[in-house]
Design a protein that fits this description.
Length: about 190
Amino acid sequence: MMQDDRLRPRPMQGDVLATPRSRLRPLERYDLPGLSRLLADPRVMRHSLHGVQDLAGSRRFLDACRASYADKGFGYWAVVHPVSRALMGFCGFDHEILDGERELAIGYRYAVHHWGRGLATEVALAVVAHAFAITDCESLVAVVDPTNVPSSRVAQNAGFVWEGMTTLEGQRVKVYRRHRYREVRSC
């Protein structure tokens, strides 16, 4: 939720966030080929509620992200290399309905060759700080497939604490929560 719902979000241009090893910017139409490769990779999508996506599914995701930027001023952003600007994945936050409650949820996906290097945690920490800076939400959630141990570690390393299990879109998921006023360790 925006701090003042009467204010229309400004169009997003350029980088939204920067970390030592990445830049986050709005996903653009020219990202579709790279995004499609990412969302079509069965290793990347193994724990996704929606599974592997074809080109049409990737286009729908891209369009939804762009609509979220226009409507809310946030969404899932492209995570790109700071020099080459190559797409490494995406990370951001958007609304999710959990147990009948509207929550702000962080989400992320990265190309396999970026796994295991701390990049996901680095970016998640920046995204959490940004979410709390631009919204009035008291907490964020991370929704994780119970078998996705690396994603659970990213959430925990970004200050999220396991809250319990729930069902989302017919699948059991872990819910982690990060409260606004909890200290975040530095990268």
